[in-house]
Design goal:
By secondary structure, the chain is mainly beta. Helix content is 3%, strand content 48%.
Length: 188
């Protein structure tokens, strides 16, 4: 009778992708004492009910914080390494001169990685925008399984003459991750 033994030369890497997950929590968070978001909890459903903020002319606003995406070990197995995060934000603005000010991933210890803000103007009617976040820090399944994992977004009005109302309907994320699949051989 043989025993199963791992053959390291047969290790295989596989890339998996989760489904999109909506934020479970939305909140406004202070950014230099700027204007707060109204109804930030509205980002937890894709239902045309918006979190809003009036961005003063030529200025940025507080953070819109989306967390608690509800990932489980069925979505991302324990021990997996996250390759990247896709962020899907359904958004628009009252004028064609509103932009992202900053967009960061966050975990319990706070924001981390690069600023993923786009230089593309916010649309003037509701539309989905996908951001690809490639963190220079290693993320594990434990990071995404935490209810503190999420996204901080701050927008801005680039207008020198008028404030702009920013609207965010929903924030979703999905993850690409690697898990090691071990091949076993039966020893005789």
């Amino acid at each position: 009778m043989g025993i199963a033994q791992r053959n390291s030369s047969e290790d295989a890497m596989s890339v998996e992708v989760t489904g999109w997950k909506l934020a479970g929590t939305g909140a406004t968070a202070d950014r230099d004492g700027k204007t707060e978001w109204t109804n930030p909890g509205n980002v937890t459903a894709k239902d045309a009910t918006y979190a809003t903020v009036s961005a003063p002319k030529g200025d940025y606003v507080d953070w819109l914080r989306a967390t608690n995406f509800g990932f489980t070990t069925a979505d991302i197995p324990v021990g997996s390494t996250i390759i990247n995060i896709d962020i899907l934000i359904r958004q628009y603005a009252s004028g064609a001169d509103a932009y992202d000010s900053a967009l960061y991933l966050r975990r319990t210890a706070g924001q981390f990685g690069s600023n993923y803000a786009s230089a593309v103007v916010w649309p003037t009617s509701a539309a989905d925008r996908v951001y690809e976040a490639l963190s220079s820090e290693i993320l594990t399944s434990a990071d995404l399984l935490s209810s503190d994992f999420g996204v901080d977004l701050s927008g801005q009005s680039a207008s020198s003459t008028a404030s702009r109302t920013l609207y965010v309907d929903s924030v979703e994320i999905r993850a690409r991750y690697v898990k090691r699949a071990y091949m076993f051989s039966l020893m005789e």
